[in-house]
Write a structure and sequence with these properties.
- The protein contains 8 helices and 11 strands.
- The protein is α/β, with parallel strands linked by helices and 256 residues long.
- It has 2 domains: 188 residues, Vaccinia Virus protein VP39 (Rossmann fold); 59 residues, N-terminal domain of TfIIb, CATH 2.20.25.
- The strands form 2 sheets. Strands 3-2-1-4-5-11-10 form a 7-stranded mixed β-sheet, sandwiched between helices.
- Helix 4 links the parallel strand 2 and strand 3.
- Helix 5 packs across helix 7.
- The N and C termini lie far apart (44 Å).
Length: 256
């Protein structure tokens, strides 16, 4: 089993929408919350936005529906292929690229009004060096005064406890059950491997899809320091109660 982030998301690309109770509804909720944040930063519908960890398109598709001019990029070729298919099905004009956020050279354009990196993508980078490389690449893609928005799990709350289980969550699909949960196998004080399980009740019985990859839990002050050290200013955080988004959100401005 490939435990790299690209391998995990390649393997889960066909199933990833099932991690939400209703992917379409979640897509709309997340897009509305992100759009409100962007608009407060003077990035309105019609502006160019790069989603540098777009996955299967959860945020990119929703924002495109709201009128933002979206470019998507992700390290997983399988996820990008799925995102392209979802965009085509919805007749949304989104350019997608396979690119690692630590090297965004394969994204041919720059000067974006905003770059987003949602759904705990940054902690897939397992060192401060890699986080710094991503910060540099993201800054290169932004215009001066552009906005960076990212979300991470609330590791400030999680790290003191280092929980072993995330979930389970039970959903219903036309009378049949679906269970989503994770096991967190801590390798040290900061790094853990997560085991993602998606178990579904079907007409032929129960089926399970399993995948695993790694995260390095990051403190909010660590992200703040890296951004401030790599040409970002006005770094601040919004908790879910303030932003309407389901994870803590960091916002930063591209400096000269």
């Amino acid at each position: 089993m490939d435990t790299s982030p690209d391998g995990f998301y390649d393997d889960f690309a066909a199933h990833y929408h099932l991690l939400w109770e209703d992917w379409e509804a979640s897509m709309a909720r997340q897009a509305a919350a992100i759009a409100t944040i962007l608009e407060r930063e003077s990035v309105a519908a019609g502006a160019t936005v790069l989603d540098c960890a777009c996955g299967i398109g959860t945020q990119a598709l929703g924002l495109a529906k709201l009128g933002f001019r979206i470019t998507g990029a992700d390290i997983s070729g399988g996820a990008v292929q799925r995102a392209r298919a979802e965009a085509a099905m919805r007749k949304l004009d989104i350019s997608f690229h396979v690119a690692d956020m630590r090297n965004l050279n394969d994204v041919p354009t720059a000067g974006f009004y905003a770059v987003i990196c949602m759904d705990n993508a940054l902690p897939h980078l397992l060192s401060e060096t890699d986080l710094a490389r991503a910060a540099v690449q993201i800054r290169v893609k932004l215009r001066v005064g552009g906005t960076f928005v990212a979300s991470i799990r609330d590791y400030d709350e999680i790290l003191p406890r280092r929980p072993l289980v995330h979930g389970p969550v039970f959903f219903s699909d036309e009378g049949k059950r679906r269970i989503v949960f994770q096991i967190w196998d801590w390798q040290d004080e900061r790094r853990y491997k997560f085991h993602m399980y998606l178990t579904r009740e079907t007409s032929g019985g129960w089926t399970t899809v399993h995948g695993t990859s790694g995260y390095r839990a990051v403190w909010r002050e660590e992200i703040t320091g890296i951004l401030e050290s790599h040409s970002f200013t006005n770094v601040r955080w919004l908790l879910p109660s303030e932003s309407g988004y389901y994870q803590p959100v960091v916002i930063a401005t591209a400096a000269t």
